[in-house]
Structures are given as C-alpha cells and as structure tokens.
Amino acid sequence: MSFSEFSNVDFAGAGGAAEGALPCGDGAAAPPAPRVVTTGRKNNTNVPHCVGSDADTGEPVQLLATARGYSVTRHLVPVEPVREGVALVDALAFSIVPPDEKSYDWVLREMAQFLEISELQHRKGLFGFRFSARFGDGAGIVAWGGESQRGRVYFSLMGKGCSMVMRWADLSSWLEQHRATIKRADLAYDDIAGRLVSIAWAVEQYGAGGFNAGGRKPIHTCYGDWLEGEASTKGRTLGIGNRASGKYARIYEKGKQLGDPSNPWTRMEVEWRAEDRFIPYDILTRPSHYLAGAYPCLAFLSEEQSIIKTVTNAAQIAFDAAVDNAKQHCGKLVNLMMQVMQGDYVAVVDKLLRPGIPARIDPYSYHVKNDPAMLDWELRGGAA
Question: What is the mean pLDDT of the chain?
C-alpha cells in the first residue's frame, strides 16, 4: 500500500502527527485511539502500535516514516484463546538470503530436514527470478538468480508439500533464525461431514456480516455450478475479498471437487500474501488462532484437524472417482481383452499398465506411496 492509497485506511486522527514523527512504533507520539473493528471476540493485542485499520481487510495498519516518505504495513491478528489443532497450514512461501553467498542448493539442503526433497526439475525463471525448479513431484518450487534479487532465494510449498511437513515448530524457528520473509501463508479448515461449514453456511454468514472487514462488506465471487443450488454435483466455490489486497477466503465443496457428487466435505481456506503485510512466523505454530482471527464468523471453529485424516479422505475420494471413471471408459475394453486372452488377468493388466499415478491422486502421492493400503476398499470397510 503506497501513501497515495491512504484513503483505504481509517487513521482515526493520525494525520495530526508532527512531520517526521512516527505515528506508531517505538518512540512514537501516542496517536488518538484508532477505530476498533468490534467482532465480539477477544483479540490478541501483541501487534505494533497502529494508527487504524484497513477498510478492505479489517487488519490493523502500521504507519512508519522512512527515508522515502512513509511505509504502511498491515498486521494479522490472532484470536485468544482458541483450541489448538483446528486449522492446517495449506500453503507457505518465503524468501531468504542464504549466508556466505550460498544459493538455492543450500536452501534445499536445509529444507530437507523438514520434508522430503526429491526429483528436482529445472524450469524457466519465475516471479522475477532468473531460474526455478520444481521438486517432490509437485510438492513445491524454488527460484533464484537475477541481479535485481540480490542473492535472494524463493521457496514455496503448496498443499502436497505442506502435508509432508511434520515439524512446523522447527521450521518456524528456522525461518526466524535465518530472517526469512514469509511471502504467503494459507490456512485451512476441513469439515468432512459438512456439519459446521458448508456453502449454505458461508452464504448466510456473508449476508449477516460474518465476513465483514472494517465494517465494510467484502466483494464476493462465485465459481462452479451455482445454478444447480444444493443439487450441485460438481461443486461450488465462494470467494471472499479481493486477492489484490493480499487477503482472500475460499469456501468450496471439496468432496465434490474430488469427484464424489454427493460428498458433503467442505473446506474453508484463508490466503494471506505479504503485499504491504507482515506475516508472523508463529502463523505456522498457531494456525488455529490466526484462522479464527481472519473473520468474525470463524471464531467458533472447534473440530480438531489431522493432516493424515485429511489426506486419507481426499485420496480415497479421488481414487474411487478415478476407478469409476476408468470403468466407464475402459470397462468394455477390459471385458473384451479378457475374452481375447482367455481369462488371463495378468496378461490384460500387463497390456494396460502405465507408470505413474492418475493426476487427480497426484496431490496425495507422497502419502499413498508410503501407505498404499489407505486406498484398500476392504480395509476401509467398503466395496470396490
């Protein structure tokens, strides 16, 4: 946010500060109390002194004098107390300057203590970096190089990569120790049974102001087969907010997205990007507190999340859908091949076998490879 965009912030009288004074922060002249966005929740006040709140996101805003004028920084606010284990980290990206002129290979070696790094695939430049590479068969990316980057390395994990991290506290400490800058963090809450979170719930909350930020109702966007309403089989997504502001929520019917037209599983995600925003390291160790603080309607979430349970459910739904799809497209061919090869199952399978796994199951491939029995119909009490 530049100084020219201050109309987007309620400064609550901060403009009266003397020239050169810091409206907030150490040594600042105490400004009048900023407007408080009342949510009925107990907010943690462990953030720098701020002069107001962003009207688009509802986040506290810090204004600091710099050599070039002023800088504006938004801050995430956690809610206390909140039950631990309610939210999961679903995406993480950070930038870092490796020590002693090291580069991306140092970052990869360091990250290998937190998740499996394998199958490095070099690609073109990305996000202004000259070089990039994928790793872990889609678990994440690393980017580096370019004179303007001044030695920085960018490292990103999406859902698959985040599901492989089991020591978030250690990773958080490592980022802080090496003064990394978190560029993006996504937190998620999964309601597998659709009891608390659903599209209908999200629509109701939006209308009632449950997603309001700074007293203003955020914009919303609908994706999917909304015209079908509750009869939707492919799934609907409700987007809340503007991604340009760096804070964006998605509520979507994940079970249907994975291929089960009657599955009630609904996911709530909130994405933060570091555009003029400070994302704290402890978002990785206290995701539940930050998700609850994102919007007034999220403070009630209570069901404990398990990454293994989430991955297992997702992989099973995607696997069943893939098998059903294969039956519809290839079932008659398999039947004919069985006749041609006189009931020789091995010969039929050998003819049809291809390396790899279906694309829809790829996001869960790491866990499936380590425990393929999670997809076994008999072990989960179902039928093929």
Answer: 84
